[in-house]
What we know:
The protein has 78 residues and is an alpha+beta fold. It contains 2 helices and 2 strands; from the N terminus they run H-E-E-H.
Amino acid sequence: xxxxxxxxxxxxxxxxxxxxxxxxxxxxxxxxxxxxxxxxxxxxxxxxxxxxxxxxxxxxxxxxxxxxxxxxxxxxxx
Length: 78
């Protein structure tokens, strides 16, 4: 993959952790074994408009990735 990626030190950043926000969505995607695919919702998850990566700012993408990378738990489907 030839995507240009900027890596951030997530520990130095504070992210909005509201339900539906980029950090929350990254965390949820990791927990539910979904691919890392930056997105968020303008309000509550599934209740408001979805914002895809193409329309996200670098800061929002960083927050999503931080949520994905910070999550340590995984859903056990057994």
